[in-house]
Amino acid sequence: MSKVDVLGVKFDNYSEEEFRQKILAQFSEKKATFVVTANPEIVMEAREDQELLQMINEADFVTPDGIGVIKAANTLKTPLKERVTGYDLFEFLMKQANRKEYRVYLVGATPEVITAVNQKVQLEYPHIRIVGLKDGYFKEPIEAVAEDIYQAQPDFVFAALGFPKQEQLLNLLKKLDLPAVMMGVGGSFDVFSGQIKRAPKFFQQLHLEWLYRAIKNPSRFKRLLIIPKFLRAVKKQVKANENTSH
Ligand code: UDP
């Protein structure tokens, strides 16, 4: 099955390698390539908002970002191949951009973080051509920001503004038909810049990155309350599916 429906969000059932190849293949055809990396929080928000849900489902690729989504797909008996995080795809695409000397536009995070991101790019990805750098606390309307990005004609756009702002911005660019890979990367600039450390491998292997992040940043704890709600909603969907199939 190539699409897996989790509470209305239609995930692509590809391995990380398949996502990489398919994203680059679509980009090489000069097509606007909008990638959403959706975690349980995003699914829950989209469920309450038809417009957001539609925006996600109209994206070119939707990856399961978070072990909660993988568990949900298993519970629904429509398993997804593997978890594909925004951060991992971001790193992969940055390496690709460096190799191919691509034009990259980075928007999001605080002014300090975006400056640190730029410094790291200069040092570690010297062949990337940064064609735009903008913190995520801009005052102008999102349409003006989209226009600015469009004018810069980047190959890749990474937006780290959090959901749904980043997707709303990228959706505008998709409508402008910018021939670029456009991906919302949430808190990735904070991690990339070293501002926030990614969970140690131990936590990653046990799929407990969320726990590590919550310990490091207790304000995230309340976000975790979404998870049991998410799992309950998934169980309800299982029941509904059983009823329709009988
Ligand atoms: N952010 C931003 N503009 C805003 C709100 C948030 O640029 O108006 C940034 C924030 O600085 C952080 C990122 O968006 O770097 C969101 O991170 P969060 O951890 O909330 O995202 P997640 O990875 O959980 O989606």
TrEMBL record:
Domain of life: Bacteria
Entry keyword annotation includes Mitochondrion: no
Enzyme class: transferase
UniProt keyword terms in alphabetical order: Cell wall biogenesis/degradation, Glycosyltransferase, Teichoic acid biosynthesis, Transferase
Swiss-Prot/TrEMBL catalytic activity: UDP-N-acetyl-alpha-D-mannosamine + N-acetyl-alpha-D-glucosaminyl-di-trans,octa-cis-undecaprenyl diphosphate = N-acetyl-beta-D-mannosaminyl-(1->4)-N-acetyl-alpha-D-glucosaminyl di-trans,octa-cis-undecaprenyl diphosphate + UDP + H(+)
InterPro entries, per database record: TagA_TarA, WecG_TagA_CpsF
EC number: 2.4.1.187
Annotated metabolic or biological route of this protein: Cell wall biogenesis; teichoic acid biosynthesis
A UniProt-annotated Pfam family: Glyco_tran_WecG
Keyword Hydrolase found: no
Function text: Catalyzes the conversion of GlcNAc-PP-undecaprenol into ManNAc-GlcNAc-PP-undecaprenol, the first committed lipid intermediate in the de novo synthesis of teichoic acid.
Family: Belongs to the glycosyltransferase 26 family. TagA/TarA subfamily.
NCBIfam families documented for this protein: wecG_tagA_cpsF
Protein known as: N-acetylglucosaminyldiphosphoundecaprenol N-acetyl-beta-D-mannosaminyltransferase
Lineage, top ranks: Bacteria, Bacillati, Bacillota, Bacilli, Lactobacillales
